[in-house]
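Q: I'm writing up a methods section and want to include an example of the input and output format. Could you take the sequence below and give the corresponding predicted structure tokens, formatted cleanly so I can copy it straight into the document?
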Amino acid sequence: MKNKPTKAKEIIPKPKASFFEKIELDKSADTHWYKWVWILTAVSLIVRLTNIQVLSFWVDEYVHVIRSRDFINGVGPLFTDDNNGILYTFILVPLHFVFGVNEFTSRLPSAILGAGSIVLIFLIAQKLYNGRVGFIAAFLHTFSLYLVYWSRLARNYAIFEFFYLFLIFALIQFESSRSSVEPTTQKTSLKWGILSAVAFLATLLSHQLVVFVFFILLIYLAFIGIKHGLNTRKWTSTKALAGSFGLLVSLLLLTPTFATISKPIFQILLPEKIANWIILDWTRIGQLWREKPFEAWDIYFGMFSFDYGFLWVMGLLGLLFSIKYAPKAALRLGLLVGVPFLLMSFFFREPALPRYYIFVYPFHLILTAFGLYFVGNLIANLLSIQQKNVRIFTLILPCLLVLAFIPYKDMWQLLSGQKTSGFIVNKKISHWSFTNWKDPALWVKSHIKPTDLVFSTVPYATDYYLGIKNSTLFRQKQYNTSTNKYEQLAPVNDSLHANSSDDFYKTLSKNPHVWVLGDYYLYNAMTDIEVRDLLFKNFIFHADASSDGSVQVFEFDPLGKGLPQEQMTVIELGKNDDLVVTQPMMMDMPQEATQIDFKARIRAKGVDGSREAIVYLNEKVAGYVPVNTSGDFQYMQISIPHQVVIRGNNILRIGYNKPQVNEKYKGFLITDFQILN
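A: Here is the clean output for your methods example:
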């Protein structure tokens, strides 16, 4: 029998792996990243501590600083009616006791915990993806202007971020240990369960925003349960029922019915402010949806789109890529970012401030890190980079992109310490406007007498920097957060108050020597016009007390220095880059003023340029104050064109435009503005 020739066996070539199959999430070589993360942490701490003591304390910082100081001195309680962030105050007490009360020691815990969050963000990203993604996330955290800024202040935001990250890491570890089949995991599970409880308590003592974790857990439970029910078709199983319960409760929490039923209960169990914040006011929410539907959304989106610019797109890509290649990470991070972001944007809307995103932003950065890592792999594949060099490329490229998008101007302004008042960083990062209380306080301290009466728009600041305990509030209105309206302070039958013009007048009639220190609150809705006029016409203004004009110092000394001469107002502009235009002032004009030009008489000092001092009428340029280089006050006239005038109320503003010539007097000062003929 003739053998048939055998056909050579065909070798089917192995199909080339697509790029999407090359994404490596191997964790086997993750241990060597720890030393680099600790280096980043050290760099981060140096960045956060650089010139941390330069800025004067801001209003909210005194909540912790003064309470700690008074508790140490035995003159005040540690707990008051507002204990939000009390854990930060606890930490300050031993620090202040050993090292003293100052800006550095008060802000040091924030800097340390802010830097410590870098380790936690790495651990979470490593757990969800791998060490390489964790390092990129840590790198993003290290140089984030937003996170650097909020970890340089004596407030409870960096500490809240730290313990919230620790809480989430502990919960992830707890879930992982519960799902493991290893016999030794029972003790591990118990350990992480206890740590989760401790972390939750620490987070709760840091900020009330931790309540959002319940929404996240309920919705996570719903996803897991519904997925289990769909896969097994066993809708009566424990997981499926738990998921249904989570979905039902999470929806119920956002209904008007729940608000009505639970409000009395929460008001008994929780402090009034926290209870009122947790229980949604649907009337107010409806009003905001109609009037400003995306106001809160714009604030939070504006923050993270400014911090690293267009890199926020990488966060979105990171979420999309995770859905395919790390679905569990996508679910966890999607909820950790999406739930609080949407709830704060459309439900828990007031107050809406950039700082409240601090517990969400680290998870946003983890998604951004994975997006950068994924895109780095894509580019490496397109460029056919050798496999041994891919790991280096996918690390260097993301870090270079991060460095390219840092807002260096704002970062330098923050770290250099050259700017001591106004907005230290972009308003999208923080709405806080700082005031330089140190210089004016030192000036007043050298002139004040023990019997003098001191008023201040921020009494905490004057008490701290003057070393006194009896400065009195100089405001006539307060903002009611419940009604969202300004309310008049009640009159006081006391000669030491300025709650109204009558109160202030009585104070001046019974006290021969009075000081008033005022920051921007002196010119906003908190201060009555009548009281401010009384201040201008009876108090000597000390322009030399403040180098940047952020705090104005007034002295009432009729028996000694006398009353001010020719001082009907005080308009000081140009000393500070943020103080360049006045608040609107109203002027009632007759019909004749709309038909013929007229003159204005101005008493000014320090006008060095021909277009430095601008007069606006109804938001139009009405004229420029003439140059005055005499070094003293002069009366000058300008012509106001009738075309910018309307009958009745007109809006007057004075503006500052930095002159081309060198200024002999930084900015200018106006003490009288009169309409002639």
